[in-house]
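INTERNAL TRANSFER SHEET
From: sequence group
To: structure group
Subject: Fatty acyl-CoA reductase

Please process the attached sequence and return the structure record in the designated field. Keep the field labels unchanged so the import script can parse them.
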Amino acid sequence: MCSKMEFGSVLQFLENKNILVTGATGFLAKIFVEKILREQPNVKKLYLLLRAADAKSASQRLHNEVIGKDLFRLVKEKWGANMNSFISEKIVLVPGDISYGDELGVKDSHLKEEMWRELDVIVNLAATTNFDERYDLALGVNTLGAKHVLCFAKKCIKLKVLVHVSTAYVSGEKAGLILETPYKMGKTLNGVSGLDIDEEKKLIDEKLNELQAQGATDEAIKEAMKDMGIQRAKVYGWPNTYVFTKAMGEMVVGHLKGNLSVVILRPTIVTSTYKEPFPGWVEGVRTIDGLAVGYGKGRLTCFLGDINGIVDVIPADMVVNAIIVSMVAHVNELSDESIIYQVGSSVRHPVRYTNLQDYGLTYFTNKPWIGKDGKPVKVGRVKVLDSMNSFRRYMALRYLLLLKGLELANVAFCHYFDGMYSDLNRKIKFVMRLVELYKPYLFFQGVFDDMNTEKLRMAARENNIETDMFYFDPKSIEWDDYFINIHIPGVVKYVFK
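Return from structure group:
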């Protein structure tokens, strides 16, 4: 990282630029697209890569899953009747799939040539974020996809910078201060050697062939692939398929970047927008929101985790602003290493699980969830279990004895309770699996250093960049106000309406 970063106006940089965004229907990608269209309508073109069979279905996805969202209401208000012509002038749809090789599955050769000729910036936001995604899919998108995007970038003759969006949790279950350091190819978290991405791909193909030869059902193949991902991740010290494949993605990008200017951005847990285009826009159940809503609906009666632990959250608009500023700061920068930015709040302005509990209690006491019976759901303090052992004991006392009893009654009553038994059994297995998946984060003891990100913020201030427009300082957030008045209402409105 150079001691002093000099860069000019972000808005000026964006003017007349061609930018490719992969994973264009994703949460952050939409916010990125909206921000650019709203703040710099003189951008030349935004090429949006999305998975679709053809141009027609790509266009449908754009309108249903991107432009059609409430998120774009300010842009629509501004352009009114001219919205459609503005969109068709600025947005180029690219049907493709980053897991399909170095040409990103783009079939249209004219379009491909045009991108290689015209692109100034690529922002890789395509990812699959399920913790226990099928291993073949996760490796295809998060690892090989990252490699394919980099290879595509190298063919773009005037490309100035590639921003690859990763996740802070590539660090696995490390404790203490986690630095903004790159992952070297083949480096593992537990020191086990032999991690080789081509080898992982080969293992997947062998497993798939073997399953197909046995005539396994689609469901059985899916489960086997999910299990394989978790198992391979654990061999090398990562807790789940998602962070393992994202870590390998970073390795490939760093290893193959050559003299391309590459920024790797690692956000922590991304929450609803803080200010723009308006506060509280969110989509899909993000990690901690499942807990909030489960609690509001009266389903979450106990919580497993370190209640005093820090939960690192950062609003989505701040992540997008960090992407944009980092992109401008590293135009045509020649360095051997990728530049890494961790974007979170745990070092500068931490929130704890106990705060979240208070915010949830305050919000749902004042605005209770209305249950199916039309009655408000009463919420109270949640029972906190602070170890896996106490959680297993709790589950055993509460459910497993009941399950045992049901099993005996079921046999005695000629399987009269079959449905009930399998239902409860399924629910218990579901909860146990969920807990296994989330356990690393519920007891997470790390905080994410953001020294590089802070240097970027300082440089933006020193260079008088439009800091009010591209803000990404978590210190400016009043957490209680944000959670009680912005985030939880946003989740209730957009995710669980």
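Handover comment: The chain has a mean pLDDT of 91. The radius of gyration is 24 Å.
Transfer complete.
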